Structure formats: structure tokens, C-alpha cells
Amino acid sequence: MATKRAEALSAPRGGDGTFAQLPAILPGLVLCVGLAGLSYAVAAWPALNAVVPLSALTVGILFGVGVRLCVSLPAAVEPGVRWTLHYLLRAGIVLLGFRLVFQDMLTVGAGGLALVVLAVASTLALAVVAGRALGLPDTLSVLVGSGTGICGASAVVAVDGVIRGREQDVACAIAIVTVFGTVAMFAYPVIAAHLGLSEAAYAAWAGSSIHEVAQAVAAGFAFDAQAGVDASLYKLSRVALLAPVCAILAFWWHRRAGGSGQEKATGRAPFPWFVVMFVVMVGLNSVLPLSTDLRDGLVAVDSALLAAAMVAMGLQTRLVAVARLGWRPLALGALVAVWISLLALGGALIVS
User: Fold this and answer.
1) Which of 38, 197, 270, 351 sits at 20 to 30 Å (Cα–Cα) from 304?
2) Could you please report the per-residue DSSP string of 134-157?
3) Opening angle at CA 246, ends 245 and 251, nearest 5
4) Terminus-to-terminus CA distance in the chain, angstroms?
5) Can you give the residue ranges of every domain in the chain?
6) Cα–Cα distance between 110 and 280 in angstroms, integer?
7) pTM for this one?
């Protein structure tokens, strides 16, 4: 009975359904928001940033997993956790559009844009092919490929909104892209010094291949200030591909599944409207003269929503289920990370 009630609360509702169920949702929502606030404090901790810089999103999912592992949560929080994961996640992805402008994609030039598109597409394709060879489910492979190819944890959760993977797949994918993205963030400046890369080549390499936005920017500025700016532009060009990738995956996922569940009931695949709204927000941000304060405020709200959703994701994750996946996801993550790095390095040397 409790499970059915939680599932009902997690499903999209129209009208005033959410407000009528606010008392049931509130405990879990408060828990997620509170842990998200704590994740911000930990992510901003100078001692931690000096060793391994982590975003509030990454810390949030770690908190969620840790709490689920160490504490027996009351049933009263479950509906709110599921609601947070469904609604706040999609709202956060929509507002993610205010971090981008279409002009960013043009700044890197035709060669840079071709490199970015090739890196994202080939990484996703390789992840699926290699994942099947390793005996992994397509959901996990697509999530790892998306996180590696596009923008880390944000891409993982956005794509999960389209393919609807298992909680353990999402948690595992986020862990993998965080680990290999962090390794790249520290390794790239050292490798660049040995290779004697120019600023332009290094920026193109870092921005086209490092997983998270924060990691790519940090690696860029570790080279010099201009490399930090240029790496950011390449990275934002990859982030802008999130919408078309989600649209393509929604179509492919429907075709490969042959229609099931909600698709059979309605005669059509559930459409990821939040992705459409993400594109609309990018468009508004590109053409409207928004003030810096307003844009910064929207970005701050977006970060808070995504952090709360990451906490909810962690609270929904059973660590035992993740552990059962074994070494194969790690091997997949390493393979696609090496692939996108080598491809981007070769392309960077050409376009620069």
C-alpha cells in the first residue's frame, strides 16, 4: 500500500494534485533541501577544494547515498524524496538553459564545433557498443556515455529523464564520470607540459573532453587565464548538445523498446517536454537583455534545484545494487574517458 502511494506521488500530475498532497511530500522535500544546503557548505570547504574540488551536485548524491546506507529512514519521507527527484530535477534542467547562449557554439568556430559534435556522438556510440560487449544494460552504458561526452552528472540525470534507468545505474554513472573527470582535471596540465601544447590546443582538448563543466574550467585555468576562458567555451558547446542528444535518445529508446508501459497505454512515447523547455530557456538567454543579477539568481536557483535532486537520487539508491554491477562499469568508464581524451587531443591539434 505504501509503495503504491509513493508511486502515485512520483507520477506527474496536473491541476492542484501536488498542493493537495503537500503534507505527504513535505518531510522528504525538507530532508532533500536540508542535505542539499549541507552539500553546498561541504563543496565550498577550502580544505576539500585544495585536494579534490567537488561540485555541490556530486557532494549531494554522496550525502544521499551515505544517509540511505547508515540511517533507517521513516516511510514518511519516501513520497517527498520521489517527488523531489521527479519535479525538482526537471525544473533544474530547464533552468540550466540560463547558463548557455547559442552564440557560445559559434565562438569555437566550425572546426571546434565539428570536434565537439564528433566527440559527443562517438563517445555515446562507443559506450553503447562497448557496454553490450561487457554485458551491461543499455541504460547504464548510455548514462556513462552521456556523462562522459556532454557534461558529467547534469547530463546523466537529464538523459535519465528520457530513458528512465534504474537508480543504481544513475548513481553508478555519476560516480564513474566524477572519478574519471577528476583524474583528467589534475592530469591534463601535467600532460600538456610534457607535450608542449599551445594554449589554443590545450583549451580545445580540455574543453572538448573533460567531463564536468567545473572540472574543464579548473583544468583550463591551471594552464593559464586565457586557456580557462577558451576551455569554457568548448565545454559550453558540448553542454548545448544536451537537448538534441536527449531528443535523439528519446526517439531511439522508443524504437528499441517497441513501445511498452505508458507508451502502450497512450499509443505514443512519453515526450521529454523539460528538454524542450531547456532549449526555450537557452533561446531566451541568448536574445533577451537579462541583467547580470537576474541571470546569476536564476543560475543559483538552478544549482539549488539540481543539488536537492541529487540528494534525492542518492536517497533512492541502494548501494548493494550498485556494488553488484562489479568491475564492468568501471572498465566502460575508463574506455570512453580514454577515447574522448585521445580523440579531442588529435582534433585540438588540427583545429588550433
Assistant:
1) 270
2) TT--HHHHHHHHHIIIIIHHHHHH
3) 100
4) 61
5) 24-351
6) 24
7) 0.69
CB-based contacts of 203: which residues, under 8 Å, 6+ apart?
220, 223, 226, 227, 228, 229, 230, 231, 234, 348
Q: Provide the grid cell at 17.
A: 494534485
The Cα 246–Cα 282 span in angstroms is 15
Q: Quote the CA–CA distance of 152 and 160 in Å, as a whole number.
A: 12
Gyration radius of the chain over CA positions: 20
Amino acid residing at 5? R
Rounded Cα–Cα distance for residues 67 and 35 (Å): 10
Q: Indicate the pLDDT class of residue 128, thresholds 50, 70 and 90.
A: very high
Sign, CA dihedral 342-345-349-352, equals: positive
Listed residue (171, 138, 128, 133) closest to 321, CA to CA: 171
For residue 84, the 8-state DSSP code is I
DSSP state of 44: T
* 308-325 pLDDT tens trace: 887 887 787 666 666 677
Of 11, 9, 319, 6, the closest CA to residue 164 belongs to 11
